[in-house]
Amino acid sequence: MAAADLSQIVKAYDVRGVVPDQWDEPLAELFGAAFVQVTNASAIVVGHDMRPSSPGLSGAFARGAAGRGADVTEIGLCSTDQLYFASGSLGLPGAMFTASHNPAQYNGIKMCRAGAAPVGQDTGLAEIRTLVEQWSSEGAPAPADRPGTLTRRDVLADYAAHLLSLVDLSTIRPLKAVVDAGNGMGGHTVPTVFEGLPIELIPMYFELDGTFPNHEANPLDPKNIIDLQAKVRETGADIGLAFDGDADRCFVVDERGEPVSPSAITALVAARELAKHPGSTVIHNLITSRSVPEVVTEHGGKPVRTRVGHSFIKEEMARTGAIFGGEHSAHYYFRDFWNADTGMLAALHVLAALGTQPGPLSGLVSAYDRYTGSGEINSTVADQAGRIAALREAFSGEEGVTVDELDGLTISTATWWFNVRPSNTEPLLRLNVEAEDEATMAKIRDRALSLIRTP
Description:
alpha/beta, seven-stranded mixed sheet, metal-binding, 4 domains, 36% helix, Phosphomannomutase/phosphoglucomutase, Alpha-D-Glucose-1,6-Bisphosphate, Chain A, domain 3, A-D-PHexomutase_a/b/a-III, 22% strand, magnesium, single chain
């Protein structure tokens, strides 16, 4: 047999590819065996999303792990943050079968060590890939002397109880909330988490369907929240929530149907967490709004800026003991949740903040949304380094400008900033611009784009 070529499916932080073209159940079984060998685990937990291929891949992984001697707890259908809960609460390494918001033909594996500690290229994923490639050509390793057991366990109620123990919703006023699950795992978790709360739940697309018949389960793309916005306006709801396919990200819409920026949500949740833990550290990546470090500082906290990417956020949270971290992509990380990301916990914080004051969500978040942003603008560029150098040369000599190369290139002044950074996987440059007003933002955006897109 020729060794499997995993170069296209083993990414920086996870495994992801088309099934069965790029990977299948026999390979999933080898991944399970390799995961146990690299983590040296005697027991693991495995869960999966609603994609058609997920139960088979997850079951194959579990068999491979058990063949290497690990006892496997299978929690079945779950969100990614529910898998992190199981890993943290049970103290076990874990594997989640999902391709998040990718189309139906994709699937993947997000792996973690005990306590939801991430497994990425530098923390075990490269070794796992090497073993799977080796075994795919030489044959699977010999089975362990004592094969592990396979046990089923439902942790959904425990997951919901843990989240609700972290946010006090006991005194909130009655709220009307539209939730768009996008046929993803929010349809599985939201009914249990919201049960018994004074919230009138208006569900959209809660049927679990990994073919995504209504819209792509990626709420960061504006076209995918159109239905949610319309339903919020139609029903007079107080808030709209949209989850991605594996329900680890949550996007918020206000009572007018207007999107609330993830930076504003980060600042709001940071203020709430700092009220409980005064003087603590809060992590934010370098393309979140300036309002985030401002709010953190105003509430007595210490803002720490990181590169884009969950591995950097989690590393800094562990290093600094931060209570919370947020990203522009609607990933929210909590120390009380093993430093893992959970959109559901962020949503509960927003509901608690909204429900303990009389005004609408738009008024509540206005204090945390102080600037005008461009959103992320992607440009196909052959010479990424050359275009970044042209931007540096054009802007760096101007009065009041500072230059920073923590992640790509950041140019900033007292009234505006932009960051441009290359994609790791495609010939793209990603531009984010923020300014004190719309006119300034547009001026800087257009100037930067003209330099990026110059032939």
